[in-house]
Amino acid sequence: MSHANDIYQGVSEQEFAHWKQVAQQVADRLASTLQTRDRANQHPFEEIDWLRQSGLLKLAVPKSLGGGGVDLVQALEISRIISAADGSLGQLIAYHYSNGVWSYILGNRMQWEFIARGIVEHGWFQSSISNPRDPRLKLEWDGDDVLVSGRRTFATGAAVSQVMTIAVWIDDQLVQYQVTADQPGIRFNDDWDNLGQRLTASGTLDFDRVRLRPQDRLTGLEQNPASAVLRNALRNQFSQLIFVHFYLGIAEGALKQAAHYFRTSVRPWPESGVEQALDDPYHRLKAGELASELAAGIALAEKTARTYQAAFHAGNALTEAQWGELALLTDQAKVIANNVALKISHELFELTGGRSTDNRYGLDVYWRNVRTHTLHDPVSYRIREVGDYVLTGKLPTPRVYAPPKKA
What we know:
Elements: H1 13-32, H2 34-40, H3 45-54, H4 72-85, H5 87-106, H6 109-122, E1 126-129, E2 138-142, E3 145-152, E4 163-170, E5 173-180, E6 186-188, E7 205-212, H7 228-265, H8 281-313, H9 320-352, H10 364-374, H11 379-392
Parallel strand pairs: 1-4
Antiparallel strand pairs: 2-3, 3-7, 4-5, 6-7
C-alpha cells in the first residue's frame, strides 16, 4: 500500500489557502446557478468541467505525478466548501476523491498510477459501480476475460465519468475491476429524478456483455493478504467520512443562506415588541443553537479525518484496535453530521418565516439534498454500533456484505 512516497502527505497552510480560495470561486459559481440547474435535473457535464478546469479534480494526486498533493484531511475540507454551494457537486467531488483512495488501496502500483495520470493529464473524473444490494451480474467467460451483463442502480456520477470501478461477484468473492467508461456495452440511463441530489447522475446503467480483462482486475490487496481485510475495510470508513463532510457542507450552506435571507427580508413578529427582527431573542437563540451544533459536528469531522489519515498511512501495520477506534469515531461523526444537517435544513425556516418558502428563494434544496442522501445508509446501525461499545466495550469490526443470491 506504499505506491508513492508523497501520497496524501499534504501541502503547506499557505498553499492550501490558495486551493481553498479556488474551491470557493467554483462554489460561488455553483451557488449562483443552483436553482436553475437543480430544476433542469440534467447530467452535470458542465459542472464537472468547472471542477476540472479549476484543478480541483487532480488535487489529491501526488505532486510527483503532477497533482496538487493535498492530504485526505485537506481534500475533505475542499469537498465541504463545494457542498455548501451545491450538495450534488459536493457529493460528486467527494466521491471522486474517495475513488482515488479506492484505486490506491485496491490496485497495484501500475494500476493506481495509470488512473492518477489519467486524472492529471486528461482530467478524468472517477466513479464506482458497487451497490452491494444489487442482484448479481450475469457472467460469461471468454478465456480469461469475463463478459458482464445486468443493471446497476445508484450509479452516482457514472454517466459523467471517464473511469469507473465495477464490483463483480465471482462465485462468492467480490472482485473489483477498473475500466474506462467508454467500454462497448455500457448504457447510461437518464432516469435519476429524485427528491434531492438531482445533479449527481445517480440513476441506473446497463451492462451488455461488457468485457473485463485480467489486467483490469485490481490486485493490490492480494500482495499482502494478511492485512487485506483491514485495509480493504478502510474503504468503507472513508465512504462514511465523505458522507459526514458533505452533509456538514450542505448544513453550512443552508445556515449561511438562511442568515442572508434573515438580514435582508425578515420582519419582526407583531407580538415581539421589537422594531427589527434581529432584536428578537428567539431568533438569536435559534441561530446560536444551530451554529453551535454545526461547529461541534465540524470539529468531530476534522478529528475523525485526521484519525483516518493516520490509519491509512499505517499501511500493512494497521491493527484491529486501530481500525475499531477509527470506526467508532467515524460512526459518531456520521450520527452527528446526519442529525445536525437534517435539523438545520429543516429548522432554518423557523428563522426565515413563511415568505421564505417561495420557490424563488430555493431554501428547500438543502433539506431535499440532505434527506435524500441520509437515507443511503441508515444511521440507526451506526448508533447501534456506538451503543454496543458504550455498554460492552466491544469495538466495531469490519462489515462484510453477504453475496446476493444467484439468479
